[in-house]
Amino acid sequence: MTKKSLVGAMPLAMAVLTAACSPAPRDPLVGDSTAVKQPILTTRLRPYAQPLVPVTIDGKPYHFILDTGAPYTFIDNHSAETLTQALTDDQVPEYFRNYIERLGTLGAGIEPGQVKYWQPKPLLIGGQPIEGSVPWVGMDLSLLDLSYGSHVDGLMGANAFRQLNWGMDNLTHTLTVWSRPPSTAGYTNCSVYQDAFGAGPDLAIQLANGNGGPMRIDTGATYESISQGTLAVLREQGATVEKIGQSTRLAANGTYETATYLVDGLHFDGKPVGRTRVYESSDSNNLGMAFLSRFDNYVFIPSEMLFCYNAKAFTRHDAKPVRWVELSSEGGHLRIGTANTVPDSLPKGLTSGDILLAVNDQPADPRDIESIRRELTNTPAGELTLQIERQGKTMTVKL
Length: 399
What we know:
This protein has 399 residues and is mainly β. It folds into two domains: 1-317, Acid Proteases (Cathepsin D, subunit A, domain 1, Beta Barrel); 327-398, Pdz3 Domain (Roll). The chain is built from eight helices and 31 strands. A six-stranded antiparallel beta sheet has the order 1-13-12-24-25-14, with no helix packed on it. The protein has a six-stranded mixed beta sheet with strand order 2-3-11-4-10-7. Strands 26, 27, 28, 29, 30 and 31 form a six-stranded antiparallel beta sheet that branches. The longest helix has 10 residues, at 369-378.
């Protein structure tokens, strides 16, 4: 996740190339052996959640979130202690230390005391090593565990993202990774994206008046973030910008509140995005996993800076939340309103600290936390039945 992307309402600096991606004589993959095109990893995706990638370090399994909003590899300090050695200040390049300390990631600025630097080691994804020239950035990522629903050892940032090719399928909920660029023949559209040092992939997003600019694809974020300036421009153009409440977001040094809106007026590849739930940001425009969930499937090919996709029903209107019920994963259970809730926002019948056991008779698995969040938020009034545990007693709450 990032706060370092900046875009205003300006004439497009980048043309979007949209084309039918069918094989052509110039396709460099034509003639390659089948073995070269085989993926190195296929793993399950959690619907709407950030992609969690299994990796191997020193022969042991770990799990890192693919976070294109982070520039480098971040690692949980507790995981790093069992893997490698901490670096002294004189072992960390001064430019890198200064860059990290100025960086906004995980939703807030990083304080120098929160960061520890570690000797990097190769991350193996399906046997393919991912290496970098800079130290691992160590932080306490325990809050991320609470929000994500399982332990996260670290974040693979844009430097790791650029070394492989990433395909995601929202219909089968799978992530596929290739070491070589896969064929684009199976995708109906391809668009170029921008990339730069300290950044991730930026797609061109148009506003209703034809202006626009690049917005950062941030696979480490669940929802979109829109800057105050862009919200103001959308209002001027007559787009819907409806404030729907305050939300609590995860930050490196805790949680923080931000305004939440429903907006329309955004377009991609000439197609309206539709009414979208977004967080307000002071200076950045980022597209999270909610935006990417609008595609049936898609692939990022960093060597060609191509984003190819299929989308039978891209335009989608997010509903206004029926209720606000934030969840955290603690002790193998989902708890209601403890780690990241707006005060006094819980519906009547729920208390902060309640353990969520089931939703409409389906067990509440912490690994499904993001899907359950959406179910609690969007299920119409009168159609939601929760089984909870409070102070050792099981009870049913209907909302």
